[in-house]
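Q: How do we represent a protein-ligand complex in a form that can be generated token by token?
A: Start from the inputs.
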Amino acid sequence: MRREKRGRKIIVWAAIACAGVIAVLITVNLLSGSEEPEPEPVHEPTEAELMDVTGISLAGRKIIVDAGHGGFDAGCTGVDGRLEKEVNLEIAQRLQTRLIAEGAEVIMTRTSDDALAPSKEEDMDLRKQIITDSNADAFVSIHQNQYEEDPEKQGPQVFYAYHGTAGKTLALAVQDMMNYQLEIAEPRMALDVPYDVLIPGSQPSCTVECGFFSNPEEEARLQTPEYQEEIVDAIVSGIKLYYKRTGAGTEILEAPSGSTSTLPSLGSPAPSGTITAQATATVAILGGSASPAS
Ligand SMILES: [Zn+2]
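Then emit the structure tokens for the protein with zinc ion bound:
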């Protein structure tokens, strides 16, 4: 009788203990199951490093700016119907203007809506040819991102080809600056995705996906001149950060003819709509149509 009671007691305690363990396991499972997958770690530069690129000169640097897509190839379509190729060109031309104001030489892969060739393959071949022939110091391709499965996704993301390359260093610098200057709440990380245009040439190359066209709020923001200027400002600062980190940006390669004197200071919004005749005249246009952008 007593042994039976003790046996029952043990069974009751064992049951309570089991229930406890199961409850803990369920809680842990529920918690981890309800969360997003762990985000990849973000490169964390110091604020002091990001704030101080003012001493870095881009004078005499040759930089290729590629407005992604064009013509028959519209790229992705925003939730309100805006075509990626159009916004890519707007941002690329603003970047062209800013870089020229910094004393850089800019090579545009396209300056109008036209593609470089009638087929995607030929178009890409011509872009790659421009990159190879340019012997440039850097290559930046402008695109917009899309992820229809999750319209909440937002923020700029920079891509490079292959670990251990100068392109990765450039992409990390541009990503860091965009995250910092655009005050991105959930910063993204630069990723190794070897797009075709990132391979040719010996210069560091990166593709900047400025934001998500699948996010209605961000798509609207990406079309405003003010935000486009902020993006361009961040990309320019990112290129300077690359030269700061690689120790190659302090010397003036070629004295700019007064082109930097009217520059807005870094971090302050640059005037919008600043595609100037001087900028167009200075730029080398290779391939594609050389007609002025509308
Ligand atoms: Zn694109």
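The CA atoms of residues 61 and 104 lie 5 Å apart. The radius of gyration is 25 Å.
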